[in-house]
């Protein structure tokens, strides 16, 4: 069974483990996740599959803007709609905090993430040349949240 829930500080080791299997994620490490849980404007969701955490999405709300900062799904659970479920839950959660747009940046080479974000409703709005380590471009995306729902 799958459930999406708000993360709690005790989830930090599971998030760091999933991230360590995901080189294209943000690379926060355990200390980074622990620090994120202390941020007032952090909104982190996890997806549990049969009782264990399989994926996470870390966002911040700075109304009217939300930012998706880090996201990953454990390798054995990929391409089964897990990230899509998380994003579908993240949007109304950010809306409830007063956001009407969500922004993110992603490596130009990250085809899986670009596809996933595009499917969830993000569109490309810009590009930062050589943003990552002075070599790789960042693609800037945003998604408008629907207040009519
Ligand atoms: C990006 C990531 C979170 C997607 O998670 P996921 O649960 O596998 O995604 P979903 O199953 O919900 O896929 C949604 C859509 O994304 C696209 N997609 C996902 N994986 C893809 C891949 N390997 N190649 C191409 N498109 C892909 C597809 O359009 C897919 O829809 P479809 O399966 O109906 O074709 C996952 O690949 C991951 O954890 N990557 C490593 C960490 C990372 O790069 N994070 C993002 C940057 S911070």
Q: Would you summarize the structure shown here?
A:
The protein is an alpha+beta fold and 149 residues long. Helix content is 28%, strand content 40%. The chain has one domain (2-144): Aminopeptidase (3-Layer(aba) Sandwich).
Characteristics of this structure?
4 helices; alpha+beta; binds coenzyme A; Aminopeptidase; 149 residues; seven-stranded mixed beta sheet; 28% helix
CATH architecture descriptor: 3-Layer(aba) Sandwich
Assign an overall shape: globular
Strand fraction band? 35-45%
The arrangement of helices and strands along the chain is: EHHEEEHEHEE
Describe the structure.
The protein is α+β, with helices and mostly antiparallel strands and 149 residues long. The chain has one domain: Aminopeptidase. 28% of the residues lie in helices and 40% in strands. The protein contains four helices and seven strands, in the order E-H-H-E-E-E-H-E-H-E-E. It has a seven-stranded mixed β-sheet, sandwiched between helices. Strand 6 and strand 7 (136-144) form a beta hairpin. It is globular, with a radius of gyration of 15 Å. The protein binds coenzyme A. Coenzyme A (COA) binds at residues 22, 24-26, 70-73, 78-84, 106, 110-113, 115-116, 119.
Q: What layout of secondary structure does this protein have?
A:
Elements: E1 2-6, H1 12-20, H2 29-36, E2 42-49, E3 52-62, E4 65-73, H3 82-96, E5 101-107, H4 111-120, E6 123-132, E7 136-144
Parallel strand pairs: 4-5
Antiparallel strand pairs: 1-2, 2-3, 3-4, 5-7, 6-7
Coenzyme A (COA) binds next to strand 4, helix 3 and helix 4.
């Amino acid at each position: 069974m799958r459930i999406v829930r708000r993360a709690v500080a005790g989830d930090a080791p599971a998030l760091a483990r999933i991230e360590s299997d995901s080189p294209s994620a943000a690379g926060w490490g355990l200390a980074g996740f622990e620090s994120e849980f202390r941020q007032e404007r952090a909104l982190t969701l996890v997806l549990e599959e049969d009782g264990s955490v399989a994926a996470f999405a870390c966002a911040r709300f700075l109304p009217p803007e939300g930012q998706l900062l880090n996201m990953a799904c454990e390798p054995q659970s990929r391409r089964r709609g897990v990230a899509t479920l998380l994003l579908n839950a993240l949007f109304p959660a950010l809306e409830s905090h007063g956001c009407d747009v969500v922004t993110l940046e992603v490596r130009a080479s990250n085809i899986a993430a670009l596809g996933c974000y595009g499917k969830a409703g993000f569109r490309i709005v810009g590009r930062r040349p050589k943003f990552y380590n002075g070599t790789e471009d960042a693609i800037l995306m945003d998604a408008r949240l629907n207040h009519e729902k």
